Amino acid sequence: MSLEKTYPKEVKQILSKYPPEHKRSAVMPLLYLAQREEGYVNKAAMQDIARMLDITETEVASIIGFYTLYHDEKAGKYRMQVCTDLPCALRGADDFLKNLCGNLGIQVGETTPDGVVTLEAVMCLAACDKAPMFQTQGPDGIKYHENMTVDKTMELIDALKKSDAGVK
Predict the structure, then answer these.
(1) Among 41, 104, 105, 160, which residue has the least CB neighbours within 10 Å?
(2) How would residue 168 be classed by pLDDT, with cut points 50, 70 and 90?
(3) pLDDT tens sequence across 99-109
């Protein structure tokens, strides 16, 4: 189903913010809209956005690939994105991520068997002095977690799993 049929008011509102000759600037808000329900942008939505904005599907996909807030694959209910760039690595991010993987029994890029958490490594979340740190993306929005330990992170994950179990 197309974005225009699923979200007609929202698409019209987004496109109205840009002059026709600059409508390609609406790509990011449209991507955000496209991944609202499932947490990722599927191929049909990419094609739809490309068509609406007169750009190529490759251009749409390149934006998804560049920004950590857009995704082209289904994942767990929460995406846990650990910053692993050099300043964070110097503050222990690599060991933190390795130990977190061990505690969760998954590797980077995988999802816990219960489907609650997908663990990802990303670059620069703008909190270098507070590493190890990560952001969670989920139904309750985006939240930063700074100066973390594996124990504190496992407590957070347990709380997410409990809240998820209570929702079902």
Answers:
(1) 105
(2) very low
(3) 999 999 999 99
Which residues face 137 on adjacent strands?
A: 79, 142
Residues with Cβ within 8 Å of residue 65, at least 6 apart in sequence: 72
The DSSP result for the chain, as a single string, is --HHHHSHHHHHHHHHTS-GGGGGGGHHHHHHHHTTTTSS--HHHHHHHHHHHT--HHHHHHHHHH-TT--SS---SEEEEEE-SHHHHHTTHHHHHHHHHHHHT--TT-B-TTSSEEEEEES--S-GGG-S-EEEEETTEEEEE-S--HHHHHHHHHHHHHHHHHH-
- Token pair recorded at residue 67: 């920004």
